[in-house]
Design brief:
Layout (H helix, E strand, L loop, with lengths): L2 E2 L3 E5 L2 H8 L14 H17 L8 E6 L4 E8 L8 E8 L8 H14 L6 E7 L3 H9 L3 E6 L2 E7 L4 H31 L1
Parallel strand pairs: 5-6
Antiparallel strand pairs: 1-2, 2-3, 3-4, 4-5, 6-8, 7-8
């Protein structure tokens, strides 16, 4: 499974991919700048703890963001586990410093939102960002998240799937198809009656 945007390829961090990254067995893309000691610790935890004891559905964990032009991992982000009983899931992301302010976070998170719309168990998505992180606040607002709460130094934003533009468009298409499927047979029936 992968997602593609104008400038990025996104791959979910499966147990197999994590193992390849940790063992330096990845040849399709470069992880040099992205694979910091902190990311190595996180990947090890995901492999040894998360996937072993609470395996989330593929896609509901982190994804890596690969810049097409350089074929290097420039960030990661995704969901922090399966949706809860109310269909709520939390999203997070990070872009390496040298690739920030290029629109990559917007592209990646927009693609992950579009993916979430296709998951029937997802009803809403929350994101937390530091009160002083204006670029992240702007990104979330641009992607139609609304500020709903605060917690310590963090602002909490939320978007409901039925308010996301892709979902709205899909509803219009389904409504139009339903009308066509209903109206066309009725019209044919009416025309047949008028001819007889």
């Amino acid at each position: 499974m992968k997602l593609e945007t104008k400038h990025l390829m996104l791959y979910p961090l499966t147990e197999t991919l994590i193992e390849q990254i940790l063992n330096n067995n990845v040849t399709e893309f470069s992880t040099d700048e992205w694979l910091t000691e902190d990311n190595r610790v996180l990947l090890t935890w995901m492999k040894e703890e998360l996937y072993r004891f609470l395996p989330p559905k593929i896609g509901f964990t982190s994804w890596i963001f690969i810049e097409k032009k350089t074929n290097q991992v420039i960030g990661d982000g995704g969901y922090k586990g399966n949706p809860d009983a109310d269909g709520k899931v939390e999203i997070g992301y990070e872009i390496i410093e040298s690739k920030r302010r290029k629109g990559y976070a917007t592209e990646a998170i927009d693609a992950l939102l579009d993916w979430a719309v296709t998951q029937p168990e997802v009803k809403s998505i929350i994101a937390k960002c530091h009160k002083e992180n204006v670029p992240s606040q702007n990104l979330l607002q641009k992607l139609q998240f609304m500020l709903v709460d605060e917690e310590d130094e963090m602002d909490i934003y939320q978007v409901f799937i039925d308010e996301h533009p892709l979902f709205k468009a899909a509803k219009y298409v389904v409504t139009a198809l339903t009308l066509v499927c209903f109206i066309v047979p009725l019209t044919k029936k009416f025309i047949k009656k008028r001819k007889s």
